[in-house]
Amino acid sequence: MATDLSLYRNIGIFAHVDAGKTTTTERILKLTGKIHKTGEVHDGAATTDFMEQEQERGITIQSAATTCFWKDHRLNIIDTPGHVDFTVEVYRSLKVLDGGVGVFCGSGGVEPQSETNWRYANESEVARIIFVNKLDRVGADFLRVVDQVKNVLGANPLVMTLPIGREDGFVGVIDLLSRQAFKWDDSGLPENFEIIEIPDDMKDDVEMYREQLIETAVEQDDDLMMAYMDGEEPSMEDIKACIRKGTRNLDFFPTYCGSAFKNKGVQLVLDAVVDYLPAPTEVDAQPLTDEDGEPTGEVATVSADEPLRALAFKIMDDRFGALTFIRIYSGVLNKGDTILNSYTGKTERIGRMVEMHADDRNELDSAQAGDIIAVVGMKNVQTGHTLCDPKHPCTLEPMIFPDPVISIAVAPKDKASTEKMGVAIGKMVAEDPSFVVETDEDSGETILKGMGELHLDIKVDILKRTYGVELEVGKPQVAYRETITQAVEDSYTHKKQSGGSGQYGKIDYRIKPGEPGSGFKFSSTVVGGNVPKEYFPAIEKGFEGMMNEGVLAGFPVLDVEIELYDGGFHAVDSSAVAFEIAAKGAFRQSIPKAGAQLIEPIMKVDVFTPDDHVGDVIGDLNRRRGMIKDQEAGATGVRIKADVPLSEMFGYIGHLRTITSGRGQFSMEFSHYMPCPQNVAEVVIAEVKERNANK
Questions:
Q1: Measured on CA atoms in the order 506, 512, 518, 524, is the torsion positive or negative?
Q2: Which among 38, 60, 329, 416 is least buried, having the fewest CB atoms inside 10 angstroms?
Q3: How does residue 509 score in pLDDT terms, banded at 50, 70 and 90?
Q4: Which range is least confidently modeled, 441-445, 540-544, 550-554?
Q5: CA pair distance 274, 370, nearest whole angstrom
Q6: Under DSSP, is residue 161 helix (H, G, I), strand (E, B) or coil?
Q7: How confident is the model at residue 138 (pLDDT cuts 50, 70, 90)?
């Protein structure tokens, strides 16, 4: 049975930490899940049980994707975390969504993190509606947040509703299009509302905003615009069609208001999801790529009649076993099918497929294009892998994850923890591709690497609380790198003559600094066969193998170009191995001559501070060797943007709170590598030597 894809909405809910994303999602599930199951709304007594541990842990809803129904439409809601250390989560959710709801706090407004998420969503061209939440809070101001969306995000909010009453007097909303005023009572039940007359003091505002709304909407259709200019108001259907089109083109973002916690205004947001956000078939199809990630020019058309193409976008472990969440772009997936994982080249049989519902799960026999489902117990699938029909292999545009910039060493406190740790870490790495775990060969320590201090704090907390692993945690270590600063020309000969066949390889080469971010480049300009071609790969492998450990302090080396321009070989004694050894010796010999230098990760830091502490914050960032890039005054304070070395940012949040009397906030993400000042480099190198001496 083919389902009607125009009734599907795959949406994500984005927000800054604490803007009320989980509450909003939970209210949506309450409004939709309960109605869908029993045909009437229950008394919404308590939050479903399993949310309790989650509220205590403060993490997002029970699963990565839940399905619910509203007005005959099927909504697949994907939750995204708000915190910057988890941007990888937001980024990967965007790949599988067709539309989104941006939730902003009525008093906090547009905060630094919501800006990053908004930028990601713009890059992914995801259509969104906006919900300004928490209007019952002190200091909440709907129109101020609307202005911030314009000024800070540079977006065009299309005001669809106005709040009735302010702060604790907030009782309802007015839907501008229908000119209906909804007023809720104090029971906190979403269904306890009545439609009232628009309050007299709001009539002028309602007409003004309604006129702006229609003027903006009809710009999408020239005929309607001409008619409107002649004084003819378009029909409701036509206005809605225009809003839908403009939303799809990202020309504007329909903007709603309410209080999710108090259950006021959520229904209108759900109506907007159905009315204005795109169905899976209305979104540009995902591009396909070849093995190396280069686009092939083909796309995964959303249709059940095409071959199967699906993307695994999240892996979770829950009480039912390992769940792999997948978005099916095209084709049909049946229980028992054999599918190909184009990343590993292996096939797997699909065992159980489930669909997540508000608070339980449905077993499925088949799913199709547009669906978001979970498969239980897949073996070798990781986030970002493409699953496809073995007869039609393809690769969907893969996800790119940033490299970790910070690491900590951890050691289990007791034998029980040692046994549990391996299993736990295995599960956690599968769930989060930006979390990397390594074992230090020499010391036997376990090294956890991540995107920032908070990211690692949370991982350690999960190990403790979820898996019961007690850890000793070392000091955070920065991911320093090494590079070179000048070009050198050099020669190296490896020869070993001792009974039987010897080894001989001579290479003449130039080493020079590469472009930042270029990694390792090898080229050969040997003429006349002085070094036979078949040895080039061995020479390249020898050099590249040495990039993992620099000469200053053993950190990996970045951005080096090597050109082989001459050399010599021996008809009997030369071999690939001899040339590989020659390249290794050459690297050790020449890198110190090429002005080896320590480089450190620089973070893009975004600090929000009240006006009266700006001087202190800037002074403090300067002391941390920060470069101030920009400052903007906002309604409630100043945003300062700076580039600061990661090594200077440890424990920053505590310090920031102290100097801003608890009102400062900040977010940071990795930006680039820069040379370390000499005095800093000396300290780092000395620390490394001391650590190695103690091993």
A1: negative
A2: 38
A3: very high
A4: 441-445
A5: 15
A6: strand
A7: confident
Average of per-residue pLDDT values in the chain: 79
Q: What whole-number distance in Å separates Cα of residue 343 and Cα of residue 379?
A: 13
Q: How many residues does the chain have?
A: 695
Q: Which two tokens stand for residue 529?
A: 């066969």
By DSSP bridging, strand 560-568 and strand 520-524 are: parallel
SS (H, E, C) 162-192: EEECCHHHCCEEEECCCCEEEEECCCCCCCC
Angle 456-457-460 from CA coordinates, rounded to 5°: 85
The gap from C-alpha 430 to its chain's centroid, in whole angstroms, comes to 15
What is the tens place of the pLDDT at every residue in 76-103?
Answer: 887 665 444 455 566 666 777 888 888 8
Average pLDDT of the segment spanning 257-284? 82
- Asked if 628 and 648 count as a contact pair (C-beta separation under 8 A), the reply is no
Helices (H), 315-452: 415-431
Q: What is the pTM of this model?
A: 0.65
Amino acid at 287: P
Axis-axis angle for helices 203-218, 222-229 (nearest 10): 140
Query: Are 567 and 460 contacting, i.e. CB atoms less than 8 angstroms apart?
Result: no
φ, ψ of residue 381 to 5 degrees: the values are: -95, 135
* 395 three-state secondary structure: strand
Q: State the pLDDT at residue 622.
A: 92
DSSP helix, strand, coil percent of the chain (3-state; round to 5): 30, 30, 35
